[in-house]
Amino acid sequence: MEEGARQAREAGVLEAERSGALEARDLACWRGERLVFADLGFVLRPGEAMLLTGANGAGKSTLLRVVAGLLPAMEGTLLWGGADALADRVAHGARLRYLGHMDALKPALTARENLDFFRRLHGGDTDAALDALDLRPLADLPARVLSSGQKRRLALARLALAPAPLWLLDEPTVGLDAASVERLRPLLAAHLGRGGMILAATHLPLPLAAPRELRL
Amino acid sequence: MSPFLAVLGRELRLAVRHPADTLSAVLFFVLVAALFPFGVGPSPELLARLAPGALLASALLAALLPLDRLFGAEAEDGSLDQLLLSGLHPAALAAAKALGHWLTTGLPLVAATPVAAALLNLPTGAWGAALVALALASAILSVLGAAGAALTLGARRGGVLLPLLVLPLAIPAVIFGAAAIEAAASGLEARPYLLLTGALLALAAPLAPLAAGAALKGD
């Protein structure tokens, strides 16, 4: 039994090394005095989406921040194509897009200026990204007058700027209306079609074809 | 280089959208300088004697005002996470923020120096030295302040901790900057003191962003 599990794991590791996949091994994380999760492992291959589910406080956001390299894991390793993903955190940051709880928008800048800043960081086309989430009519409004759903859409428009192998999404659809959630479907499908990976923490169903699920 | 310029450009654009931040620092500087004549009495000689030190001290205090928001505002709205994942090295990010702070706070303070110098009865012959000394000293405060702001990020009452951390490190800049102005006021050569202040900046400019970057990464 143990031998079989070990062999299966080694086979998974070999495949992960070949394909440039993301693999987490025995991750553990403490916040303050509390153990959030331990012995957490998964493999995410190119073209795959995985949903993180679980009760509030189960550690979904924490796991996303650990995978992004924003929080150190107490134990365990994170591998990218078989190599330590967090050895060069600057390079690791550049190959992922992180959408956190907060929208990272400056209220004084217009929607276009906010997105334009991220275009200068990541590359891509601001107008196409605005169109992808139907934000063109709001482009010249300052972000402070946008509703929370509109702000969320503007934050999501960052994903449409330039391709990156890994998307880490923390409750991406919170505050979105049904039409906006539907607008995410082609965006997510195109990303997976390019061989991208999605790791998303969510309580709501996402417009994804066949996501795997990791319950925390 | 492009992400560095993107961060710097956003700093400047935000400063233009929120001119009150820059304006309040400049007014604070002029008001503190205006307090000295009330405190020590309107004796012109005494004021001129005090002017170099008073100019430096009030400019550095004014430049401290916006520092606790340098990374605090970015952390609050989630921008800091995005900046740390942008592929820009944290030290380069801190350097861009420090340069942005100097351009939006230090430079306006330098521009307001003649007003404060006149209030303190500084001889006009020393105004040139005062401009250069304040430009250098405020730049030193910007880079040290970026390191302090990164270290106190997330600390309770970080706004109080920050001056306690940064001002002692700025003492050499006050000593040499004030010495330069005093030398120019008494008709001596200000250049050696200005060069020493410049040397302090040359030391702080590469080291402080490295410290700030390490603090931002959480190492």
Give an account of the 3D structure.
Chain A has a five-stranded parallel beta sheet, sandwiched between helices. Chain A has a four-stranded antiparallel beta sheet with strand order 2-1-4-5. Chain A has one domain (2-204): 3-Layer(aba) Sandwich (Rossmann fold), CATH 3.40.50. Chain A has seven helices and nine strands, in the order αβββαββαβαααβαββ. Helices cover 36% and strands 24% of the residues of chain A. Chain A is α/β, with parallel strands linked by helices and 216 residues long. In chain A, β4 and β5 form a beta hairpin. Chain A has helices at residues 2-19, 60-68, 89-94, 111-122, 126-132, 148-157, 178-193, and strands at residues 22-31, 34-44, 49-53, 75-80, 83-84, 96-99, 166-170, 197-201, 212-215. Residues 12-17 of chain A have low confidence and may be disordered. In chain A, α4 (111-122) crosses α5. Chain B is an all-alpha fold and 219 residues long. Chain B has one domain (2-217). Chain B has ten helices and no strands. Chain B is elongated, with a radius of gyration of 18 Å.
